[in-house]
tRNA-2-methylthio-N(6)-dimethylallyladenosine synthase (Kiloniella antarctica), 468 residues
Amino acid sequence: MAKKLYIKTYGCQMNVYDTNRMTDVLVPLGYETVDGPEGADMVILNTCHIREKASEKVFSELGQLRRIKERRESKGEKMLIGVAGCVAQAEGEEILRRAKQVDLVFGPQTYHRLPEMVTQALGNTTGRGISDTDFPVESKFDFLPEESLPQGSSAFLSVQEGCDKFCTFCVVPYTRGAEFSRPVKSIIEEAKRLVLNGTKEITLLGQNVNGFHGEAPDGKSWKLGRLLRALAEVDGLERLRYITSHPNDMDDELIKTHQELSTLMPYLHLPIQSGSDRVLEMMNRKHTADHYRKIIDKLRDACPEIALSSDFIVGFPGESDRDFAETIRLITDINYAQAYSFKYSPRPGTPAAGIDAQVPEDIKSQRLAMLQELLNAQQISFNQSMVGKNLSVLIERKGREEGQLGGRSPYMQSVFVQAPERLMGHIVEVKIESAQPNSLNGSVVTGDFDTLDRHTVNEKQTAMEARI
Ligand code: 5AD
Ligand code: SF4
């Protein structure tokens, strides 16, 4: 009988990707995935360390799992509990010390070793869980099996991991390790397999994805622009995206790729964190606000329709009213389609956590509210500017209402339509009729089957059948 596996994923897309790949490693061991921890033979928490109080949340979840595990054990059944991801990497020893119910702890770079770890954990009688949080010399990508399940019409593909930038607020360089780019050949092979299994859109992932510099079949090192061009040649791959980028790696070739490659969606998440040069310097971002503005100008020259997104931190230690005003000015000038914003919170072990001039909580809250009001207004007006336009939408999920399907516009907006389920997985043309702060509504434009899908004859046939 198949053993049941439940993986709970926290945090970024990179963790979603890692969860899928952990599943790929465990399926050959006889596991199949289930939707909850009750009755599971193995539960893995794939954790994220970015958000505040991340480890407390993990410990509270582990408390609930302990109760489930005790119930199973009282019936003579076994249940393994694993903690993976960035909290495991940063606080693995502490987890094993405090949470005796945990059988295995492993980091983002060692989950290819899960078969050995699971065998070891099943035979472990020491009363203490096992841990593997190395940064191994081997790359996990050389050991991971091929994907065991189709990843859906929109899939993630990890091309780069880790970060050497050491922004002073950030834990990533400590939890994900040094920058590493996968070889081009294995990326293209993975993309082809995804497309064969029905994927139409691939989002390339990396903590510093535009710092990609992978070894290519021509013996050279390719940067992200070159990789995107090669991926655009994969037959049946309709849409490409990448996330997350650093301004300093936004080179001219990549900007030109936005101009020339229609497969590359006109959307870019390019975090700046603050509009003040003084704060940017304290954050060790290694660029000025002006440099960022120049990159945005170049991007908009190359691709006028590009929608921009960013991350902002308010209340970084030492941030003055004047610094904050510069962030507001930058947001006003750039005009974002959407963005994420956070109050600074100290992460143990990072340089900024030790700075004396921490900003009081109430000031952080005031600044965040002001910044979000501005960003929300920009997002609403961006969404409203879509009303009356036709957008291509990749339909990928059911909506909340009866008969409703949802997908993403080229600009990453959620778009909902009333449409037959057979359109699932297709790219359709949608006339936008109304805009909400976080989504758009519209109707599928009938008629031209070319708008349903662009590629192979087979797909065109399906597209024709799918016409309303
Ligand atoms: N405090 C607040 N926000 C943070 N981020 C990363 N570290 C911190 C921190 N210590 C935010 C940054 C980053 C995003 C993923 O999370 O804006 O870009
Ligand atoms: Fe963290 Fe991004 Fe800075 Fe790297 S570039 S340290 S991942 S914020």
